[in-house]
Specification:
The protein is of the alpha/beta class. It has 13 helices and 14 strands. It folds into two domains: about 250 residues, Aspartate Aminotransferase, domain 2; about 130 residues, Alpha-Beta Complex (Aspartate Aminotransferase, domain 1). Helix 11 packs across helix 13. Pyridoxal-5'-phosphate binds next to helix 3 and helix 4.
């Protein structure tokens, strides 16, 4: 029996009482209450959870990326490097910020190709590292290259909440880290995002840009240890910046907050499921799951793997057979209009070709693997994937006929 892999994670019961209270009071706007609004409490709790000085909750991770770029005060047409394997929202955020995306090659382990990254770095004024599907790029190498050139790094950790690098939370290594609360991410609020940083000036600018009009920024100073530094920054930026109104609602915060204490569990279960399925399907001669990097401890809620030795039509046939057997697999480069295939980003100022990333996208498969699956669910999924590959390729071809 195959599990339901489509549904998002259910919302903890604890959210109900708070949502009820908000519905009765009508207190849904984050700046309505004089203090301790659910969005403010979420920001404080999230900053503590991640080990960051400041957090700003906004309407999506895309909004967080856009505000990060704006808050850095990049000049118009600044070049911003992004990986060529990411979600369309990432180049979009660069374009919204009046900057120019520079696409960098990705290797077949879904991470940034450091040779291409270094080659394209001259002339780049900021970098967004998308840890796509929670696969962490080599942050040691990236920070070393960017720090010596004074290039700020934004981590798009939308899908990496709970991942660590040398034991440190992903999203806290670059200057800013951005996370998503969209339904298919580790914490599900339907929509929502948050950014974390230790830079008071940057967060003050982002707070105002996000829509803290007049003196609403005062409601971001609940943590007394930070408030002097923040107040000076807010004073500097009062009335100096446009408002984009990308705030989060108290209702979303009420859905998010009870998920923070269960995050560690979800991460462990997701990793256990992922690693179990990965071990099983890696035994197939047609399937390979790239290994994680050494310093990385992943928090997966989905599974990516490459199909080896298959033609395009074999790959299509594999997807069809797996679907018939009950497991939906998407090949990033083969599904029509896929938002993670760079050639579909026709809104870019110029189209570029990245042959290595393209080759990866034509063989890389994506399937959800929610944390709530049991061990036998995982085994059923692995069986479908290996049998679908065998059925398409025929076991005999293993021996090179
Ligand atoms: C989901 C996702 C985003 C976009 O997040 P939203 O909250 O939906 O804007 C950006 N980057 C990556 C890597 C994602 O997985």
């Amino acid at each position: 029996m195959l599990p339901n892999m489509h549904d998002a994670e259910p919302i903890p019961e604890a959210a109900r009482a708070e949502i009820d209270r908000l519905l009765q009071s009508g207190d849904l706007f984050r700046y309505h209450a004089p203090e301790d609004a659910p969005v403010s409490l979420l920001e404080q709790e999230f900053a503590v959870e991640l080990g960051s000085k400041f957090a700003l909750a906004v309407s999506s991770c895309s909004a967080a990326l856009f505000l990060s770029l704006k808050a850095m005060g990049l000049p118009r047409d600044a070049r911003v490097m992004i990986p060529a394997f990411t979600f369309a929202a990432v180049p979009s955020s660069v374009i919204h910020a009046d900057c120019v995306p520079v696409l960098c090659e990705v290797t077949d382990n879904y991470r940034i190709d450091m040779t291409d990254f270094e080659a394209k770095l001259p002339g780049v004024q900021a970098v967004i590292i998308s840890h796509m599907r929670g696969h962490t790029s080599d942050m040691d190498a990236i920070m070393a290259l960017c720090d010596t050139r004074n290039i700020p790094v934004i981590e798009d950790a939308a899908h990496s909440l709970g991942t660590t690098w040398h034991g440190r939370n992903i999203g806290t290594i670059g200057k800013v880290g951005c996370f998503s609360f969209q339904s298919y991410k580790m914490i599900n609020a339907g929509e929502g995002g948050i950014m974390v940083t230790d830079d008071a000036d940057l967060v003050a600018r982002a707070v105002i840009l996000s829509g803290a009009y007049e003196h609403n920024w005062r409601k971001h100073m609940d943590r007394k240890d930070n408030s002097t530094e923040l107040e000076a920054a807010f004073d500097r930026w009062q009335n100096k910046l446009p408002l984009y109104n990308l705030r989060l609602s108290n209702l979303a915060a009420a859905v998010i907050r009870p998920q923070i204490p269960i995050l560690k569990n979800r991460v462990q279960e997701g990793r256990r499921n992922h690693d179990h399925v990965a071990t099983l399907i890696n035994q197939s001669p047609w399937i390979s799951v790239p290994a994680k990097l050494d310093p990385e401890n992943r928090a997966p809620d989905s599974l990516q793997f490459n199909l080896d030795g298959m033609s395009d039509s074999d790959v299509q046939a594999f997807v069809g057979v797996a679907a018939e057997m009950g497991v939906k697999v998407q090949v990033f480069g083969l599904t029509t209009d896929n938002a993670r295939a760079f050639w579909n980003w026709e809104f870019l100022p110029e189209q570029v070709e990245l042959p290595q990333t393209r080759a990866m996208l034509m063989r890389a498969c994506d399937t959800r693997l929610p944390a709530r699956l049991t061990q036998s669910d995982c085994e059923a999924v692995a069986t479908v994937l290996t049998q679908a590959a065998d059925q398409v390729m025929g076991p005999l071809r293993v021996y090179g006929t």
